[in-house]
Structure formats: structure tokens, C-alpha cells
Write a structure and sequence with these properties.
136 residues; mainly alpha
Length: 136
């Protein structure tokens, strides 16, 4: 079960993602989670990676978001993590998402815009799924 702070975070982020999504993406996650992890852990890890990618892509394509995707990630970490090891895993996934695009793109291209739209859509799907299944 998620706490109210996490539900509020997901709601705010879902609204932002819904406003920016253009291309629907199907999310498939077949990985097992560890015994002490919530059943939606892999989805949250993927969401962290999406935040990192958007933190790089949105400014590159002259999109201004307030709060920034890094600030959203901080809110997410504050709401979701008490365990420092888990926090580090989320941060690493955020950084992977950021680095994955920072090495490939120096300017906003049509491919960068497409990737950005797909990530917005995928993030929206993840948030919708997690909140509808586990947010009570």
C-alpha cells in the first residue's frame, strides 16, 4: 500500500505526463522482485530511468518544465525511499536514463522528440498502473 504523499506525487506526475503524451507505448515487465521489495518495484525503477531521460531530453528540445524532472525525482525519492540502498538504486536508474541520451544527442532531433513523447506516455502508463493496482 502506498502512503498519501506517494499517491499525491503520482497524481501530480500523471497529470504532467498526460498533458505531454502523444504516442502510446505498451509496458511489459516480467522481472521478479526481491522478497522485501514491493510488487511494483521494477515499474518504479523504470519510472526513475524515464525521469532521467526526460531530465535530459526536455531542456534539449527547449521544453521548460516546472518543477524540473530532477526535482520530480527528488520528490519521488522522498516519498518512496527510506532505505539508503534502495534510494541509490533509484538514483542510478535515473542517471542511466540521463546518460543514455546525453551520449547520443547534442541537439533536439525528430528522433529525440519521438523518444521524449514515448517516455512521457510510458511514464503515464506506469503511474496509472501502479496507482490503480496498489494505491488505496
Amino acid at each position: 500500500m502506498m502512503n498519501r504523499r506517494m499517491q499525491a506525487f503520482f497524481f501530480r506526475t500523471a497529470v504532467v505526463l498526460a498533458l505531454g503524451s502523444v504516442y502510446p507505448v505498451q509496458v511489459v515487465s516480467a522481472q521478479e522482485t526481491a522478497v522485501d521489495e514491493p510488487p511494483y518495484e521494477q515499474q518504479l525503477m523504470r519510472l526513475s530511468e524515464i525521469f532521467g531521460a526526460l531530465h535530459f531530453l526536455r531542456p534539449l528540445c527547449k521544453e521548460s518544465d516546472t518543477p524540473s524532472w530532477r526535482d520530480r525525482m527528488e520528490d519521488f525519492l522522498d516519498a518512496e525511499t527510506l532505505d539508503e540502498n534502495r534510494r541509490r538504486r533509484f538514483i542510478e536508474r535515473f542517471n542511466q536514463g540521463y546518460r543514455g541520451f546525453s551520449v547520443a544527442y547534442r541537439e533536439c532531433t525528430e528522433a529525440a522528440r519521438l523518444a521524449m513523447a514515448q517516455y512521457l506516455s510510458e511514464g503515464e502508463v506506469i503511474i496509472s498502473d501502479v496507482t490503480s493496482r496498489y494505491g488505496r
